[in-house]
Amino acid sequence: MNRWHSLSGLAASALIGLAAAAVSSPAVAAQATNFSRGAYDGAKADIRAGYKAEREKCDAQSGNARDICREQAKGREQIALAQLDYNYTGSARDEAKLLEAQYKARYALAKERCDDLSGDSKALCLREAKTARDKAQADVKLARRVTIATEDAEIARAKADYKLEMEKCSQMSGDAKDGCVASAKARYGEKW
């Protein structure tokens, strides 16, 4: 049990560090590294405990500084949890959720920082934050479309290759043909 806790603690520390970088960085260079359910659960608990500790540190501050601190802690937690999910599943859906968590955290933090301003400066600050959020949101939508198009193209290529292999097999006879057909079906799996 201790082994999982230390592994999940390391994973959570790494994810929290990654989340801190992601709050300030517009791009994600995350890659899925699947791991066990035990490590996942432990890392999730560590991330939540880290958030609670960060939030308690924020209570020592006052005014908008406290609000900014809380928003940073909340953003780090949300990004770390999304990163954890993506690392666990490696799915395109969880990758999109990670990107979404990042731009939402950046937007919430930017809005909170704008509260220190007033008048036209505050209005401009909020407009810049919304523009950055809208751009990031558009990037996520584009990434989803690209993922779907890529998957469709891979299926179309596999179908074309399978069809070609089957045509080549139809030129053969006997055991050679049976072996060729079996090989083509095994290679392409007819997963479409």
Explain briefly what this protein structure is.
This protein is an all-alpha fold and 192 residues long.
Supply the key terms.
single chain, 192 residues, elongated, disordered N terminus
Largest sheet: none
Structural class: mainly alpha
The helix tally amounts to 6
Backbone shape: elongated
% residues in beta strands: under 5%
How far apart are the termini? 43 Å
Rg over CA atoms: 24 Å
* Low-confidence regions: 1-30
Number of domains: 2
What do the pLDDT scores average to?
84
Account of the protein in words:
- With 192 residues, the protein is an all-alpha fold.
- The protein has two domains: 1-116, no CATH class; 126-192, no CATH class.
- The chain has six helices and no strands.
- It has helices spanning 2-24, 37-58, 63-89, 92-114, 119-170, 174-188.
- Helix 1 (2-24) packs across helix 3 (63-89), helix 1 (2-24) packs across helix 4 and helix 3 runs antiparallel to helix 4 (92-114).
- The radius of gyration is 24 Å and the shape is elongated.
- The two termini are 43 Å apart.
Give the topology.
Blueprint (H helix, E strand, L loop, with lengths): L1 H23 L12 H22 L4 H27 L2 H23 L4 H52 L3 H15 L4
Helix pairs in contact: 1-2, 1-3, 1-4, 2-3, 3-4, 4-5, 5-6
